[in-house]
């Protein structure tokens, strides 16, 4: 990895560290998820970075990929466990982190399980460590608290304009003998759950990403595809970002039609909300690291 690339990862991490700290201080009971997401994304833009993906604010059994819609009125209640997943990029070089807030007062150990699993895994991260060793440690730690890790969610590599790159870093014991290599950036991302330990896709989708630029017939779809490629490259974006963008000047009908045509053509892909079983609670902890010149650098 070139030094300039490493510096961009590190800069993204510094911005994200401050944004994370502010979010942990300022997110309160009763706040609307839309207001929280908008404030965090605006703070990122105001500090010289860009959001690497829409802020994920997943409640309770939802594990990932919930970002509020433009008309979302959901507010934090005293019955909620909230996952906050934030990403920052500098020229496509990404830092990614997540934390969990327990507003119920009942799931502190669940949150602690995810956080402890993360810290144990980070302590192992170095060039040459096998991926299965990290997964085994995460699973052992979470099981030790009496919970399950989510087996079909994982940590991931971080490449330029690619949030989920290889290698996939497991949260459970596997046979993956691949090793972390010097010169790579990656996120370790344990999930602890009171549920089944397997997430499923919901119907609702608010997050999309460019898959491949393809010819489409609808004029609004063509304009939207050009905008996505120029503004977000292959990083995820929210429908609400499009709804609020003055360059596009789309009404709701035009926006919905354009998104549907891009989906049907395969030009973009959707990221449905991922959830564990009903009435379960999920906690998430995540940080990003860079292996550079034989050293493990924690970005967040």
Provide the descriptors you would attach to this structure in a database record:
four-stranded antiparallel sheet, 300 residues, alpha+beta, Creatine Amidinohydrolase, Arc Repressor Mutant, subunit A
Describe this structure in words.
By secondary structure, the chain is an alpha+beta fold. The chain folds into two domains: 3-202 and 275-298, Creatinase/methionine aminopeptidase superfamily (Creatine Amidinohydrolase, Alpha-Beta Complex); 207-270, Arc Repressor Mutant, subunit A, CATH 1.10.10. Helices cover 34% and strands 26% of the residues. It is built from seven helices and 18 strands. It has helices at residues 3-26, 33-46, 108-124, 131-144, 219-232, 239-243, 252-265; strands at 50-51, 56-59, 62-64, 81-90, 93-102, 148-149, 155-159, 162-169, 185-188, 191-193, 200-201, 207-210, 237-238, 268-270, 274-275, 282-284, 287-292, 295-298. The strands form five sheets. It has a five-stranded antiparallel β-sheet with strand order 8-7-9-17-18. The longest helix is centred in the first third of the chain and has 24 residues, at 3-26. It is globular and about 55 Å long. The two termini are 19 Å apart.
């Amino acid at each position: 990895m070139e030094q300039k690339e490493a510096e961009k990862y590190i800069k993204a991490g510094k911005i994200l560290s401050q944004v994370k700290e502010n979010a942990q201080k300022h997110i309160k009971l009763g706040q609307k998820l839309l207001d929280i997401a908008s404030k965090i994304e605006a703070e990122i833009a105001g500090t010289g970075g860009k959001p690497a993906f829409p802020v994920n604010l997943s409640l309770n059994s939802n594990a990932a990929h919930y970002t509020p819609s433009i008309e979302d009125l959901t507010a934090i209640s005293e019955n909620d466990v909230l996952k906050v997943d934030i990403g920052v990029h500098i020229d496509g070089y990404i830092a990614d982190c997540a934390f969990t807030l327990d507003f119920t007062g009942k799931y502190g150990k669940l949150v602690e399980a995810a956080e402890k699993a993360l810290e144990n895994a980070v302590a192992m991260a170095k060039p040459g460590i096998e991926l299965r060793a990290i997964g085994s440690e995460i699973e052992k730690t979470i099981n030790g608290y009496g919970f399950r890790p989510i087996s079909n969610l994982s940590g991931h590599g971080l490449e330029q304009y690619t949030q989920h790159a290889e290698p996939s870093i497991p949260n459970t014991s596997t046979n993956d003998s691949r090793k972390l290599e010097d010169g790579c950036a990656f996120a370790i991302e344990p999930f602890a759950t009171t549920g089944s330990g397997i997430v499923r896709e919901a119907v609702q989708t608010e997050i999309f990403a460019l898959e491949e630029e393809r010819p489409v017939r609808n004029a609004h779809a063509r304009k939207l595809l050009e905008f996505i490629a120029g503004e977000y490259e292959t990083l995820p974006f929210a429908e609400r970002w499009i709804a609020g963008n003055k360059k596009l000047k789309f009404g709701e009908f035009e926006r919905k039609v354009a998104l549907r045509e891009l989906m049907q053509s395969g030009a973009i892909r959707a990221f449905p909300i991922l959830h564990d079983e009903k009435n379960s609670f999920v906690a998430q902890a995540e940080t990003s690291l860079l292996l550079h010149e034989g050293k493990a650098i924690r970005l967040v």
